[in-house]
Amino acid sequence: MNKDRKLIIAGNWKMNKTVAEALDLVNGLKMELATVKEVDVVVCPPFTALDGVSKAVIGTNIKLGAQTMSEYGFGAYTGEIAAGMLKEFSVRYVILGHSERRQIFGETDALVAKKALAVHAASLKPIVCVGETLAEREAGQTEAVVGTQLKGSLVGLTPEQMEETILAYEPVWAIGTGKTATTQQAQEVHAFIRARLAAQFGETVAKRVRVQYGGSVKPANARELMGQPDVDGALVGGASLEVRSFADIVKNSI
Predict the structure, then answer these.
(1) Which of 71, 100, 107, 170 is catalytic?
(2) What residues pair up with 167 in beta bridges, in sequence order?
(3) What is the residue-averaged pLDDT of the chain?
(4) Tens digits of per-residue pLDDT, 123-158?
(5) What is the mean pLDDT of residues 169-188?
(6) CB under 8 Å to 251, separation ≥6 — which residues?
(7) Across 59-86, average pLDDT
(8) pLDDT digits over 198-253, tens only?
(9) What is the DSSP string of the chain?
(10) End-to-end Cα spacing for the chain
(11) Among residues of the chain, what percentage have pLDDT more than 70?
(12) What residue ranges do the domains of the chain occupy?
């Protein structure tokens, strides 16, 4: 863990939680995490719960994120959500290019890059996800795949915008499977990501960018993962859906 980079733990609720369930969850987190100042805590509920959750976190240390966003500002884009709509609910962060968006909905690096620029144009912070599949890892292609995703997904960003971008390394084979990259595996890829950032944006920027780990993060492995020099937080999936497990991940990270 680098003391210059504040840890950021974000919960990606995915397509879970009705409004009532979302409020139960966030109200529990407010009590559990009321005194936490060392970590940036973010929750990313489904769009339908943004209004209720945004009101519930007013005046707390919990910030709000969205799970995706359109690259367009407004118009005839049925089913999409624009930056201005998210800002109405005080959203601060937007997850982009999650492996589920890439694999199930066909999002490409080029589309993620357009979305990242739109997020920055709205003065929001993108959380850009990268990561390899099990087949790619077993074929020794981790660095090639992650490097390509990084280069393509960050096209057009200025060094200043890159500093305000969070990256999330999510090995696809570890998402929701119960498998977790070892701390050594996670650190190796995070160090590789930072080296690529240095080559693309300069050493100073690379040292300031926060890189989260995502992929079956649990209370039991949080402390060891967050203790790695290039791991600056976590993007938590399933374990963020329960007050106890998400709160313990945050507390165990400090």
Answers:
(1) 170
(2) 128, 211
(3) 96
(4) 999 999 999 999 999 999 999 999 999 999 999 999
(5) 89
(6) 33, 36
(7) 98
(8) 999 999 999 999 999 998 899 999 999 999 999 999 999 999 999 999 999 999 99
(9) --TTS-EEEEEE--S---HHHHHHHHHHHHHHTTT--SEEEEEE--GGGHHHHHHHTTTSSEEEEES---SSSSSS-TT---HHHHHTTT--EEEES-HHHHHHH---HHHHHHHHHHHHHTT-EEEEEE---HHHHHTT-HHHHHHHHHHHHTTT--HHHHHT-EEEE--GGGSSSS----HHHHHHHHHHHHHHHHHHH-HHHHHH--EEE-SS--HHHHHHHHTSTT--EEEESGGGGSHHHHHHHHHHH-
(10) 10
(11) 99
(12) 7-253
224 is catalytic: no
Say if CB 57 and CB 27 are below 8 A apart: no
CA torsion 200-222-90-14 (nearest 10°) is 90
Catalytic residue (one of 71, 98, 107, 132): 98
CA distance 8 to 43: 11
CA distance 249 to 239: 8
Of the candidates 173, 185, 180, the one whose C-alpha atom is nearest the C-alpha of residue 249 is 180
Contacts of residue 168, defined as CB under 8 A and 6 or more positions apart, other chains included, come to 95, 127, 128, 129, 130, 211, 212, 213, 214, 235
98 is catalytic: yes
Which CATH number describes the domain made up of 7-253? 3.20.20.70
